[in-house]
Amino acid sequence: MNWFKKRINMFLVDYINRKKMGRDIDYFDDDIFIVSYPKSGNTWMRFIIGNLIYDDFNFKNMEELIPDIYVVPNEILKKYPRPRILKSHEYYHPKYKKVIYIVRDPRSVAVSYYFHLKKFNVLDEKISFQDFLERFLDGTLDNYGTWEENVKSWVFMKNQDLENFLLIKYEDLSNNIEEEVRKVIRFLRLSVSNDKFLKAIEKSKFENMKENEKRLSDETKVLKNTKKDIPFIRSGRIDEWLNYFTENDIRKLKDRFGNTMNAFGYI
Fold first, then answer.
1. Structural domain boundaries of the chain?
2. Which helix (H) or strand (E) holds 165?
3. Cα 2 from Cα 5, distance rounded (Å)
């Protein structure tokens, strides 16, 4: 067990150091941020918005059109056309003026994050889900706070600012994508034809994003050197966590995040 913990610490310290630039970028008042705790649907939302705005949005051009603030250096980000639409995982930041925030069941988040860190060679292959879960619960996987701290920071500070803050539940997006995408269109004040609307939803289906990833992963800087046997776009299912959580795991999660989970209808 101690060996596993040392291995986790070694990988995560390096991972966290590579993510520290997130709060240090230059901001503009017309920036639009897509924000979530990791593995909560941020890439899905980037594809939806990208497909609403552009004719061809894919893994290869994603960082050129809706960049990740942890991937594209600040000096380059400053030169992007405005208004910029940016991806972020940060907890509440007062300089984020207009925000689409995505929240997802932390049980699903944990499973997805576990495979994500393995894909990016951050977690050793031998580290079990239960060992990983301890770090997920105490918020030491990254610089974004715990799942609960991240979610509550945005909802508490921005939820009354209806003009500049849109809260989207991953599960609602999964169950009724058309209604949720219309909310995004209204929030961003986009002019989208019905044909463009339907095509954007079709292109943003998980099977189409998976095909896009498979076709372009070797040409995508972020995915090029990751493990090919673990897809970046996985199942997207809202009940996959049932295959990984023991009763004890669920009890630990509820002890930590129970009130917030209840507020979002996850309990």
1. 2-263
2. strand 165-169
3. 5
- pLDDT tens-digit profile, the chain (267 residues): 444 444 445 444 444 444 555 678 999 999 999 999 999 999 999 999 999 999 999 989 999 999 999 999 999 999 999 999 999 999 999 999 999 999 999 999 999 999 989 888 888 888 899 999 999 999 988 999 999 999 999 999 887 788 999 999 999 999 999 999 999 999 999 999 999 999 999 999 988 888 877 887 777 777 777 777 676 767 777 888 988 999 999 999 999 999 999 999 998
Residue 187's Cβ-side half-sphere holds a number of Cα atoms within 13 Å equal to 23
Q: What is the CATH number of domain 2-263?
A: 3.40.50.300
Kindly give, in sequence order, each residue whose CB lies less than 8 Å from that of residue 69, ignoring residues fewer than 6 positions away: 21, 22, 25, 77, 86, 87, 88
The secondary structure element, H or E, covering residue 167 is: strand 165-169
Alpha-carbon distance of 254 to 267, in angstroms, equals 9
For the whole model, what pTM was predicted?
0.89
Number of residues assigned to the chain: 267
Which ranges constitute the DSSP H helices of the chain? 2-19, 42-53, 62-65, 74-77, 106-119, 129-138, 147-158, 170-175, 177-188, 194-203, 206-216, 247-263
| Contact call for residues 107 and 214 (beta carbons, < 8 A) | no
What is the distance between the alpha carbons of residues 48 and 25, in angstroms, rounded to a whole number? Answer: 25
DSSP designation for 68: B
